[in-house]
């Protein structure tokens, strides 16, 4: 039976050695707490770091650790202290984390960190390769392991690999500052499905893929030569029932059954019944905006002094990454801020801020959520923020107000919360007042919507949606409509080829026989191609036609001495057996002088684009432009041309990074059908890669073997992956 392999840096439990013994504590952080609910039973194995380095583990304890982890369905990746320093404290948390959260000034670009990141990612990939069977599904998590998908795909090309990023993916302008940006993208593209929390992160990622790798992206599919990768957003949910039920259970406890913390909170409420408790819970991280929140609280108390002694802010900051300098500085800053504000504003009866710097057990977390009238979460940037969702889930009587930063991924789904900009103190002060005075009915109405949504789209649904999407992506459902030219099909096509007496082959050039080049003139045929074409050309019973949108001068130079048959400019000109080109279609080129200035104005405004002038057509090439910008301009040009042309004599063809304006009565379909009608062929074959070839696929008779190069949607019957495969296919025809 196939299993799911979850792989992340953090396991759901962290091991600690104290007094020679081993203890396991639950991990904090959205990834571990969320995925814990998905990871269950024998069908799932979770691979990750135990929290202990090789140096921490005394001789003989390794096996005890393995069996302790096994009880939790986990298996460890061994990391040395140097690994953890370079990969975890270094590249993950001093380079990627700040960069992806838009703290560019905190990002350190150290080659040693990067080398360690690569080496440790390889260790994780090796751990997967050791455990994974052929049918298993591999789900890689988060920014610490962005190279793992490619490392696994390289060794297991058929593996099903998903990747989910739990933090924001920054805009291209930020991401491109990373010295190893291409490697990181290529690492991720080893996956079959890449998931993000929000559409914005997805959009930023696709933009970087287009601009930095120059890959084709259509909607949310990325086209590689031999695969299509899907990118999508899946906002992570929580285990709603777990939080809701825990809250119910906690409120049913009486007297001494209650936790010490709950007893303290209840005493406080009893002594000051009209005081409001505001809670904030985060890892101590600069992305969470804790210091700003404390400053905003002071601002609020000064703006609305009537609330002094009437509200209390409880800050639970969970220690995190304390070896990283920025986190140490932040700890000091917050200690000082809390000290100063409490020192300045406290009265005999009142301390404005209760500050806890520790990790509390789950029960205490629930106590804090259920006892607080308001949750105030102000991240400056946050991939999702599950605490916001957990607070709402624990409000069993539906009261309570959530104030949430717009910069958190969860804000997109929690419109009924009070959304704030964490940098705007004025707005926050007013929002706090609104929350404190919000009538119960309004609180309940807002929370009802929020709870229904959280209940429905819980973490299990989230994981299932990701998994289903991954599986259907892998099966190729909805990706392409043609069949892959596999060995069986190739064999049956070869049988037909062999038994045929008169064969006719139409071969497109760019993107089919030869790859693309920045300068089209440089994409000239190589020796291997000449040899291949020579052999086909000389084969008895075979008529070969090169059929292209290229101009006749270029093809004359490249192929006329070879005497191959050629159709160029999409069907305007024809040359047979080495004769000069002749007109195949009567065409009118009067329109060209009107269209030329329009194209020129697009060239002027689109750096990197240029016009190719042919005898009866004009082509605007935009392969070398900024990909996003080029696509946008192409759409614009299409609109302009369509409105200008306004009659049926001229048409616009959208090719592969080229838009061509030409007479409507010319296309490869019409030209190929004309050639076909000149003789009695019993085997017809057409192969090409772009829209201009679709005319052949459509117009040639049903019995034609039509082959698309690439994975885009097509009318062709079969597809092959790239130019390399085209040549292999043609060699097959030669070596029958
Ligand atoms: P991040 O992933 O950046 O830490 P999230 O808000 O998405 O932020 O996730 C934090 C998770 O950590 C929540 O699921 C929360 O319940 C959990 N958590 C926070 N504090 C504690 C704590 N003291 N003990 C245990 N779990 C905690
Ligand atoms: C965030 C990250 C997780 C990480 C967690 C806790 O949620 O997305 O990958 O595990 O913070 O951070 P830590 O460094 O302790 O693992």
Automatic annotation (TrEMBL):
CDD domains membership: GT20_TPS, HAD_TPP
Any Pfam family the entry gives: Trehalose_PPase
Membrane-spanning intervals of the chain: none
SUPFAM superfamilies associated with the record: HAD-like, UDP-Glycosyltransferase/glycogen phosphorylase
InterPro entries documented for this protein: Glyco_trans_20, HAD-like_sf, HAD-SF_hydro_IIB, HAD_sf, Trehalose_PPase
Membership in a protein family: In the C-terminal section; belongs to the trehalose phosphatase family.
Official protein name in the record: Bifunctional alpha,alpha-trehalose-phosphate synthase (UDP-forming)/trehalose-phosphatase
Originating species: Croceitalea rosinachiae
